[in-house]
Amino acid sequence: MPPRRPVRSLLLAETIAIGSELLVGGRTDSNSLRIAEEFGRLGIGVRFKSIVGDDRQDIRTAVATAAGRVGVIVLTGGLGPTVDDCTREAISDATGRRLALRKDAFEALKTRLAEWGRVPNAGQRRQALIPDGATVIANPVGSAPGFWMKWKGALLISLPGVPWEMEAMLRDSVAPVLSSELTRARLRPSPITRLVFHTFGLPEAEVDAKIKGLVKPSMPVDLGLLASPTGVLVSLTTRPRPVLSGPRLQRLADGVRSRLRDQLYAEGLETMEEVVGRLLTAQHKTVAVAESCTGGLIGHRLTQVPGSSAYVDRGVVCYSNQAKTDLLGVPPALIEGHGAVSAEVAAAMARGMRERSGVSVALSVTGIAGPGGGTPTKPVGLVYLGLDAEGGPSATREYRFSGDRMVVKQRASQAALDLLRRWLLERAEPV
Amino acid sequence: MPPRRPVRSLLLAETIAIGSELLVGGRTDSNSLRIAEEFGRLGIGVRFKSIVGDDRQDIRTAVATAAGRVGVIVLTGGLGPTVDDCTREAISDATGRRLALRKDAFEALKTRLAEWGRVPNAGQRRQALIPDGATVIANPVGSAPGFWMKWKGALLISLPGVPWEMEAMLRDSVAPVLSSELTRARLRPSPITRLVFHTFGLPEAEVDAKIKGLVKPSMPVDLGLLASPTGVLVSLTTRPRPVLSGPRLQRLADGVRSRLRDQLYAEGLETMEEVVGRLLTAQHKTVAVAESCTGGLIGHRLTQVPGSSAYVDRGVVCYSNQAKTDLLGVPPALIEGHGAVSAEVAAAMARGMRERSGVSVALSVTGIAGPGGGTPTKPVGLVYLGLDAEGGPSATREYRFSGDRMVVKQRASQAALDLLRRWLLERAEPV
Hints:
2 copies of one chain form a homodimer. By secondary structure, chain A is an alpha/beta fold. Chain A has 16 helices and 17 strands.
């Protein structure tokens, strides 16, 4: 048998997501994606992901399996106060470390519950049970503490499954622990760099054709394409070794940018609504939205951005024809003549919205999201967009989207925000 | 060592999803949820799910691990024509079965490509390489064939990762094979039934306390609890054996219902917006929504439901104070006196919305979604709801939500729809 090489394996990680709803409940594990991203920055590669139910024996099996193949194991979930939460017990079974009530964890738990005007019950008290020799990881946003320990040369980390709790603890506590363990082991892995480019307006095959040949097979970088209702994503992911130099990766990134041109709307984690918000802020412009078939989705997306109250003035959802007339002054005769789903009505909605609100630019959407309501001449998926700006020409666009009701709404909202983005770019000061 | 019992383990399954984009690429594995659903109908429980990259050694490790703990192994992905597709080779490595070109599979592949006007290249020819002793699974909608084999008392099944190809092969070929293998092993498992109950308004610990003791440890059913921003979900999942009779399961379900009372807003796949839509439709009522901090999310959710145009009249997103006055007639003095985030303004928004639109009932939301904008007396997460109905008393509610901007918006939208649901229930005809 070859000797153990625990130091090497600190660069290999496995996530174990716990929860029966992840096995059969229609819910997917997204925590592991965030963990892989954060670990990539440290140069640690997530090689395996496992999902098990709330079953003490199965969790124990998963932990033992992971310990045989990686050096960093991260469990998420199963730390709650209810009877089916048994990650603590399963880790104790797997590692042989006994559980005991940890005073500092219990005090923190009591303090947190007191903020919510409550005292711990028996189940919540269980949340302060921590295996011998483990270090408590404070939960800055919820009640369940996490913990980490060294075991058989591996680092075993247990975090809650609630995404925002998991994420805060990953960033605040887990990343620093891993950094210092890597340093202690004299490992200086190069970060796994993943560059992401978001495009809108081209089908996947056309994006593929545009970037074909850019990445040679000999280069230590993986090119990825991923289609979704909001566009096609292009990614460049470096491998931990051989190392691709920063300048060479930047040349590749520039190649992607120049081939995708203005179809590229964002990079990295930036979203379309953040891009639009940044452009509106820089140009000191305000926006208002008149939505029919998107039903409020564009307003919702614009206001997901912190600070959006500085440029989002208002929105209206005018589902009924009466609302289009009442709220936006669209003439009933125009609706009768062209139909509520028409370029003419989209233009009138945007104009009415801008004139009544006094904003710099107004967007409008009217369409047929389906599944009902389509006709041979106006099928499901037909969407008209309008844009009306102070002192500028107005614009309308026609789209025919495929997909179910939710997908049509998503595509229509993305197209509307992209129309606004392009309008703002044309007006941007040259840099 | 106890004797192997391969027959028993046919009731335990593991899925292995293959693809590097599932490790780091921001994409989650949804194939395994479909497999768990289909297997549940057959009485086979998916106990473990694994995800590995396009790495021959890692896939081999995952297959060997699965063979040690379950009787049915389903791999998805890695059967494509490109160099990174190596599931065939990894299965051959793990099982010791040699790969050889299978004539019937190659003919089917050529026929499929010919339909698309193409001939197989070297990579596509590799798709017809099948391990010795495996049975080919025809792909009715794509080019990559799958295969299944018996190995060490387990069934090993390999399917493409493209969801609609995987799904067709699962339904047309895999389910019949499993049925006949279960019959041959004289196993008649009962289907796994999963009942889901959605609650809103109670923290997880309180829901847990309410249903405590209902499911005795001796009963062959698993009780699950799951908290999310939109509430706590309770589930009852039967085990393949011993069989819980239908009437006994129904008695348990009735027990959950009577303990959760009106905190239970929906069962199964139904959503809050569908429940509200159903009640509005039955009572021939219309609704309008005045949103500030939720930014259009309530309108978006209400209009996700097909046919919602029958009862959703309109919405306004009044982010600025000016918009609250313009669109809803909220007096500027009221905003100055109490602040935009106050019960008084919430009430005035709902009243203005209903009076101007003429709907049966209007909802309003005003709050501080964060992360900025909070003060000591009005912290981030403070939300006021208003409801105003024709001829009825109006209502306001105060909430203090925790979580980030997105979570506060989700919780506020759920609370607003729940307020509407409760109002509609009070007015429902007794059944």
